[in-house]
Amino acid sequence: MQRYWGVLYLAGAFTLAGTSVIAGRFVIDVLGTFTIAAVSLFFALLGLVPLCGRELGGTLQRMSRHDWLRLLLQALFGIFLFRLFLLQGLIRTSAGEAGILTGATPAVTALLAWLVLKEELSRERLLGIISTVAGILVLQGILAPVTGISREHLAGNILVLGAAVCESLFNIFSRLHSIKASAGQTPQIDPLVQSTLVSGLALVLCMGPALLEEPGTALAGLGLTGWAALVWYGLFVTALAFIFWYSGIKRCDASVAAAFSGMMPFTSLLLSVLLLGEQPGWQQWLGGFLVMLGMMVTGLKLPALKVQSQSPGG
After folding, report:
1. Dihedral through CA 44, CA 50, CA 55, CA 58, nearest 10?
2. Rg of the chain's alpha carbons, rounded to an integer?
3. Which secondary-structure segment (H or E) carries 222?
4. CA distance 281 to 124
């Protein structure tokens, strides 16, 4: 039972991450991209820093320049660029379709894990990649003609795919850090502290561009729903999801984590129908089915959890 804690953490992390598309939709027409990212990260840190206690200070003293560089890369790809591409894509495409397209992450991560981490690219994972690519082509109107898709809509879909690539790179950087920590080549970092440091670095990256958006007036006029979306984006999509993520990636291969990232499109598509009233066409449902089938096939034959066995909570 203990060896499956990593799987449960990853499922929770990506279910919460899937709500990012919905939270972003509530505020993207009012606030700038970097303002949304910066304010949500501020709320995340409000929840994370008090929980770290003395562990945060001790970790900072042990970290080297290489450790900071690894965390900076995680912040750059996992938060800064991911949210930039996702939120810009949401301006141009539907929330449901954006959520589905984030399902490309398992396929991209499996390929990168094979190339960079030398993880096995089994027949099941290869079939999962093919299914994911087919689903994306359906959504883009290449395999199945989509009526009325504009260049703007297509550009939005491409931006969301860019977000999926960034998420995949984040998966690889996180797994590399975990492997080095397990081998004693770099200090072990508590998932809570790691979430705090990555969120703090991402906030620093977002602050300058956010100030250029002159957010004061827009934030002052933001309604209760908008503020609730930002708080949710910060405390749950960022803080809690990242704690779950780092707890899971310590216990699982990158390809296993990639498979569970398919929870993002499932959650996004379902909530876009229930909360936003979107009505996806048959192409979206077919494309979504193929993407999520690819996620499930990619996750077949889960390898043994090879990193140290720990109790829940890291």
Report:
1. 90
2. 19
3. none
4. 29
* Helix-strand-coil split of the chain, %, nearest 5: 75, 0, 25
CA distance 176 to 42: 27
Burial class (CB in 10 A: 0-12, 13-18, 19+), 109: buried
DSSP state, 185?
A: S
pLDDT, averaged in runs of 10, over the chain (314 residues): 71 86 88 94 93 88 88 93 90 80 76 80 75 71 59 88 89 80 78 90 95 91 93 91 82 69 74 81 76 67 38 30
Residues in the chain: 314
Phi, psi dihedral angles at 42 (to 5 degrees): -60, -45
Distance, in Å, from the CA atom of 125 to the CA atom of 35, rounded to the nearest integer, reads: 38
- For 187, phi then psi, to 5°, come to -65, 145
The alpha carbon dihedral of 289, 294, 295, 300 has a sign of positive
| CA 51 vs CA 191, 196, 240, 245: distances in Å | 11, 9, 12, 17
3-state DSSP call for residue 51? Answer: helix
pLDDT of 279: 78
Exposed, middle or buried, 221 (CB in 10 Å: 0-12/13-18/19+)? exposed
Which residue is listed with tokens 């800064």? 80
Only one residue has tokens 């499956």, namely 4
Positive or negative torsion for Cα 229, 246, 13, 71: positive
Taking Cα atoms as reference points, which of 53, 256, 291, 87 lies closest to residue 174? 256
User: Which residue reads 């093919």 in tokens?
Assistant: 130
